[in-house]
Design a protein that fits this description.
binds S-adenosylmethionine; alpha/beta; 24% helix; 274 residues; 8-stranded mixed beta sheet
Length: 274
């Protein structure tokens, strides 16, 4: 009988399709991952079978579980490849819900050499769910107009029936749900410095925000292409179990070191456990 205990809180070297095939059905609460982008970087001889990965992820994910798929396109022969969209459609065709199309906006994008288009400063964060999402702990932000009385303002009522404008007399609250464009500094924050041996890590804060949003403490978080192990490091800090898989020995070693090294006090206070 297949069990999960031997894989939990480990970094596993191998092709993620093969490694995941060892897992039982419906055991993963959340996957946070970014695949290799259009062969932009050379990851020592990987083989990348996206349809197979999508199928295995669907099998191993619990009902209501989520995949956060962080991806961008290369520009080849003067056109963006559209790979991100093709992958999103492949997820939907395989049976996933496209729960949300979120944006990872880079506060410090790399200046573009090709001058005939605007500087690219974002990546997609496709949120796929297996049926209706089971866990959402929304991140809150401060309201711009907290306390303001809106006596004169009318708000549209977005019900399915006839849409009418209604008076809303209550003062604006102090907090509201964060929007779906998330901004991060890339590669410069202190907590991201231990990922420098990898060519394309995402920020710790990005992994943090998905983990607290889509899981509860004790849940199991997977990154099947974990690179330097950012998702696993953050899952550990946040009191979730994790599994990291990468095809590269070298990156597995980086990920193991990051997870093993003592998490500094500063990092524990920076990231809040939800
Ligand atoms: C964009 S990087 C991930 C970076 C990671 N999010 C981080 O924060 O360090 C993609 C990773 O996928 C790995 N990879 C590519 N094909 C794979 C496969 N079939 N199975 C497992 N890992 C794979 C590469 O070695 C690479 O480290």
């Amino acid at each position: 009988m297949k069990t999960m205990n031997r894989y939990k809180n480990k970094i596993l070297q191998g092709n993620c399709v093969e490694v995941m095939s060892e897992f039982p059905d419906e055991v993963i609460d959340l996957t946070v991952t970014s695949p290799p982008y259009d062969n932009l970087r050379n990851y020592n001889g990987f083989s990348f079978q996206v349809e197979e990965i999508i199928k295995e992820l669907l099998r191993v994910t619990k009902k209501g579980g989520v995949v956060a798929w962080i991806v961008a396109d290369a520009t080849i022969n003067a056109t963006e490849t559209g790979t991100s969209f093709k992958q999103a459609l492949a997820f939907m065709e395989a049976g996933w819900n496209l729960h949300d199309t979120m944006i990872f906006r880079k506060k410090n994008p790399i200046p573009q050499i090709y001058r005939k288009r605007y500087n690219n400063e974002f990546e997609y964060m496709f949120i796929f769910s297996k049926g209706v999402v089971k866990t959402h702990n929304p991140i809150l932000v401060e309201c711009l107009h907290a306390g303001l009385q809106l006596n004169g303002t009318t708000y549209k009522n977005y019900s399915k029936n006839l849409q009418k404008r209604q008076k809303l007399a209550k003062p604006v609250g102090t907090h509201k749900m964060k929007g779906n464009i998330w901004e991060y500094v890339v590669g410069k924050r202190k907590e991201d410095q231990d990922a420098k041996a990898h060519s394309a890590p995402f920020p710790c804060q990005l992994a943090n925000d998905h983990i607290i949003s889509w899981t509860n403490p004790g849940d199991l978080v997977l990154d099947p292409m974990c690179g330097s192990g950012t998702t696993c490091k953050m899952a550990k800090i946040l009191g979730r179990d994790f599994i990291g898989i990468d095809i590269s020995d070298e990156y597995c070693e980086v990920a193991k070191q990051r997870i093993k090294s003592k998490i500094v006090e500063e990092e524990l206070t920076l990231f809040k456990v939800v």
